[in-house]
Amino acid sequence: SSIERWESPDTKHADIEEILYSQDVLKKRIAELGRELSEAYEGQLPLFAGVLTGAFVFFGDLVRAITIPIEVDFVAAHSYGHGMESSGKLDIKKDFRIDPKGREVVLVEDIVDTGLTLNVLSKHIMDRGAKSVSICTLLDKRARRAAPVPNLKFIGFDCPDQFVVGYGIDWAERYRYLPYVGYLRPSVYSKAISEQEPAQDRFREEK
Ligand code: 5GP
Ligand code: MG
Ligand code: MG
């Protein structure tokens, strides 16, 4: 049977090789980011836009560390599909609900990797008439940058060039609910690739 259960949310999932950023470490850094952002945008009523889906957990914690008035929205843009490589093409699936025209926009992302997603997304927001766009990312994979990401001003952690999951970040839609960021065991994704089947099919019976 594929039914699994573990002790508590803190228990390391069997598919996770190592925890990179624990709940405690995340909490402390996000409190600092909240202070930095609150200072930078005081008196400006910035529009914070979480990039779905990966940033949803980070975004929820980040806005609760803010101590100035802000407005909150979400955008959805996909560049990865179910694989591990950036497609380089951005598909905007959900645009702003709040008009970004004339606003100071803070885009909140999970990971900046090649930078392709945010490069295109920032341009799109400036085209919509935003006054400014700056980016706040939990993780920065600097080593992999292929496109310039202007205004990447708020960074949680410089992340090693390794595939991570958890704290909102998925592999094939899995592991988003883990409360920490960790390395996924290579055996998990190499198995799915070698079996040549969509990864989520392996887990369908668990839903
Ligand atoms: P890029 O900057 O290459 O356009 O795309 C960044 C996006 O790729 C991230 O927001 C995230 O969705 C995905 N990504 C990049 N690195 C990783 C990783 O280590 N793990 C996971 N799960 N997604 C990643
Ligand atoms: Mg993302
Ligand atoms: Mg993804």
TrEMBL record:
Family the UniProt entry places it in: Belongs to the purine/pyrimidine phosphoribosyltransferase family.
Keywords: Cytoplasm, Glycosyltransferase, Magnesium, Metal-binding, Nucleotide-binding, Purine salvage, Transferase
Protein name in UniProt: Hypoxanthine phosphoribosyltransferase
GO molecular function: hypoxanthine phosphoribosyltransferase activity; magnesium ion binding; nucleotide binding
Gene3D superfamilies with a match to the protein in the record: 3.40.50.2020
Any single Gene Ontology cellular-component annotation: cytosol
Annotated localization: Cytoplasm
Pathway: Purine metabolism; IMP biosynthesis via salvage pathway; IMP from hypoxanthine: step 1/1
EC identifiers of the protein: 2.4.2.8
Catalytic activity field: IMP + diphosphate = hypoxanthine + 5-phospho-alpha-D-ribose 1-diphosphate
Organism name: Vitrella brassicaformis (strain CCMP3155)
CC cofactor: Mg(2+)
Gene Ontology annotations of biological process type: GMP salvage; guanine salvage; hypoxanthine metabolic process; IMP salvage; purine ribonucleoside salvage
Enzyme class: transferase
Domain Phosphoribosyltransferase: 22-169
Pfam family, one: Pribosyltran
Predominant subcellular localization, coarse grouping: cytoplasm
